[in-house]
Amino acid sequence: MNHTLHIIVTLRKEKIMKIYTLEQIRKIEKDIPLMVEQLEKGYEKYSLGETVVPPVGYLHFDEPVGNTYIKYGYVKGDDSFVIKVFNGFPENAESGLPTSDGLNMVFDSKTGLTKAILLDEGWLTGFRTAGATLVCAKHLAPKNITKVGICGTGTQAHAILSMTPYVLGKQKVVVYGYTKELTDAFVAEFKEKGFDIEPAYDVKTVCDQCNYIVTATTTMTPLITADMIKPGTHITGVGADAGGKNEIDASVFAVADLVVNDSKSQCTVDGDTTFALKKGTITEDAIIELGTLIHVGKGRENDDQITVADLTGIAVQDIIAAEMACRLLGE
After folding, report:
1. What residue numbers bound the domain in which 49 lies?
2. How many angstroms separate the CA atoms of 16 and 18, rounded?
3. By C-alpha distance, which of 263, 239, 89, 103 is closest to 178?
4. Nearest-angstrom CA–CA distance, 139 and 190
5. Residue 108: CATH number of its domain
6. 330 near 44, Cβ under 8 Å?
7. What is the average per-residue pLDDT within 276-296?
8. Which of 55, 173, 199, 286 is the most buried (most CB within 10 A)?
9. 3-state secondary structure of 307
């Protein structure tokens, strides 16, 4: 496939639909500060009711195991609406195939005509998710970070760590993966990129050394429990987005001074938060949405607080990412 190809399809009455390849889309990677700024505004609009975001479409496959997520919506007053399809099929790795794929479709909200198709192969989802962790870091990370902890060694963990310096600056990093081989390979890769990084072969080591932690795994067995957490720690979890996934144990929510959800309606059904609610370690009125937190300016108050951000991923992120890509690539 020629990834440099830029296809322009002419539709009826001189309407133009653009198709962008992954190679072209990745050019927006240099615009991380703009992405963070736009995501903040998007979260705020979501929590203020200024978006239309229906429930997530979800398909689960058993043989082989796979998941399809369909997220869609629009920001009121915008001239576009977006539909995103993201597929995750982990067993593809055994055949040498990509484990994720996807695309974003952008439509004119006045005519319904297709404006652009972004063949991002799932990259935009990783980019906007990593951007969301930076939004959380901006508002919730301790002022004095000991080390950055990353739980996970997959595509999402790569994106998150690569982008973290844009908000937190250069920090020492500790990473934990499912196996020693995965962990060591991840460490070696990021050392070549100039990161001060070391491996951890259990999650407790990450929690002992780090007060800013991001989890990006597909586990259904919690990685982090309350007894592992030190005062002043912030945790952002991005892996528990559906299907019984659970990275942050319910006990952590019981000791947290501040619990943040990207979407209360989603996190209380599919996120780590739902397990805490079921076990009674937290009540729904104790949760604040990320957009509300941004709007009222209430983030971390001191370096002794324990804070948790549970992110399931919401369509407004996809809307922001797709529209930003179209705007920058069209210039």
Report:
1. 7-122+317-330
2. 6
3. 239
4. 26
5. 3.30.1780.10
6. no
7. 97
8. 173
9. strand
pLDDT of 5 above 80: no
- Gap between the Cα atoms of 207 and 302, Å rounded: 19
Query: Can you give the CATH number for the domain in which 196 is found?
Result: 3.40.50.720
Residue labelled with tokens 């240099």: 30
Cβ contacts of 297 within 8 Å, gap of 6 or more: none
Q: What is the pLDDT of residues 135-150, one digit of tens each?
A: 999 999 999 999 999 9
Three-state SS for 331?
coil
What the block records as the tokens of 206 is: 């990450």
For tokens 């203020």, name the residue.
Answer: 48
d(CA 79, CA 115): 10
Residue 1 lies in a domain: no
Q: What is the pLDDT of residue 15?
A: 63
Q: Give the start-end residues of each E strand in 34-191.
A: 51-52, 57-61, 66-75, 80-88, 100-108, 114-118, 148-151, 172-176
175 and 256 belong to one structural domain: yes
Element (H, E) at 141: none
Same domain? 151 vs 291: yes
Average pLDDT over the chain reads 94
> What is the count of structural domains for the chain?
2
Q: How confident is the model at residue 166 (pLDDT cuts 50, 70, 90)?
A: very high
Cα dihedral 79, 118, 325, 133, rounded to 10, equals 110
Band of the pLDDT at 42, cuts 50, 70, 90?
A: very high
Structure tokens at 217: 């795994």
C-alpha closest to that of 127 among 34, 247, 47: 34
pTM above 0.85, yes or no: yes
| Rounded Cα–Cα distance for residues 194 and 190 (Å) | 6
Q: Is the dihedral of CA 152, 153, 157, 162 positive or negative?
A: positive
